[in-house]
Specification:
Layout (H helix, E strand, L loop, with lengths): L2 H8 L3 H36 L13 H14 L8 H17 L2 H5 L2 H16 L8 H8 L1 H16 L9 H6 L9 H16 L6 H5 L2 H9 L6 E4 L36 H5 L6 E4 L8 E2 L8 H4 L6
Antiparallel strand pairs: 1-2, 2-3
Length: 310
């Protein structure tokens, strides 16, 4: 047996190499998501059960409160009362990060995103039917985030406080207030959160796609982010494999050339792409590509995919 044959036998197949790449990326994201979720729950438990004062609440660790305050100040010239300084610092940091890496906060950090990813996993294991709206319906439904954002801004201005906290699914789940005596506001909040979570079993990332007001802000900032996933039409073989794993229903295979600003940066499409260089994470203006995923395509593969060679 020759040395070349021995090397080929020892070398993992391309399919195994690809699976390892996907697993590394997915594992990194899951560890990051769970780490932040555990941190939030630990902070909430400390705030709820420890007698010492000064412990941060879940409100202080939510960037939307800062976004809510900043938008209210920019539009009305007034600040919302009782906003924790760490909340403002966190909010500004998240907004700056959105201009750099887009909606990666939603895909890697947000605890509500983690919960919805968990529900999607449960739905898959239970073989629950999934509703995927058509392109036109999807575009209309995505405006729901801006409707919720407008309502939140108006009510925050009228009440002078973080009005949305009473109904925010994130706050309802992670503040642990449901361990205290229930009030009418808490009952309404739990009902809203429960409805969203149940619906998320049948529509992947329902809250992120159609209702989250912070997602509306990120959708706007995402259009100007420095790093975005880009598709090279000349390299792409139109296999459409990148569309399947997207948790927010983006048709990545039609990106021309930049993927939709609603992208949450989970990288599932990039790691799924079988063609090296077809999907990249790169800055605008033809600057060097920072991340390239996919395997190298042999010379005969474009012809096999149905594309004629020029």
């Amino acid at each position: 047996m020759s040395i070349a044959q021995t090397d080929r036998q020892r070398r993992p197949s391309r399919a195994i190499q690809r699976l390892r790449t996907i697993r590394r990326t997915t594992l990194a994201r899951r560890v990051t998501q769970l780490g932040f979720a555990i941190f939030i729950v630990a902070a909430a438990a400390r705030h709820q059960f420890e007698s010492e004062t000064g412990t941060a609440s879940v409100d202080a660790l939510c960037p939307f409160g800062a976004v809510e305050t900043l938008i209210t100040w920019a539009t009305t010239g007034t600040l919302i009362a009782k906003v924790h300084p760490s909340n403002l610092i966190l909010g500004v940091a998240v907004l700056v990060a959105a201009l750099l890496v887009g909606n990666a906060f939603c895909g890697w950090i947000c605890p509500m995103g983690t919960v919805q990813d968990g529900l999607a996993w449960v739905a898959k294991k239970l073989h629950l039917p999934q509703w995927q709206p058509g392109p036109r319906t999807d575009r209309v439904l995505r405006w729901g985030r801006f409707v919720v954002l407008g309502l939140v801004m108006w009510m925050s201005y009228v009440t002078g406080r973080l009005w949305f906290a009473d109904y925010d699914p994130y706050f309802t789940l992670f503040s642990l207030h449901w361990l205290n005596p229930w009030t009418e506001a808490l009952i309404v909040s739990v009902a809203i959160t429960t409805a969203i979570l149940v619906a998320s079993l049948f529509v992947e990332r329902l809250w992120c796609r159609y209702l989250c007001p912070l997602g509306a802000v990120f959708a706007v900032l995402g259009r100007f982010s420095f790093l975005r996933i880009r598709r090279d039409a000349a390299t792409c073989t139109d296999c459409n494999l990148c569309d399947r794993p997207c948790p927010v229903g983006i048709t990545v295979s039609k990106a021309d050339p930049v993927v939709n600003a609603d992208c949450i940066g989970c990288l599932d499409c990039v790691t799924t792409c079988p063609v090296r260089g077809a999907l990249t994470i790169s800055p605008p203006g033809g600057l060097p590509q920072l991340l390239i995923s996919g395997k190298k395509v042999e010379a005969e593969e474009p012809a096999m995919s149905g594309k004629a060679e020029r």
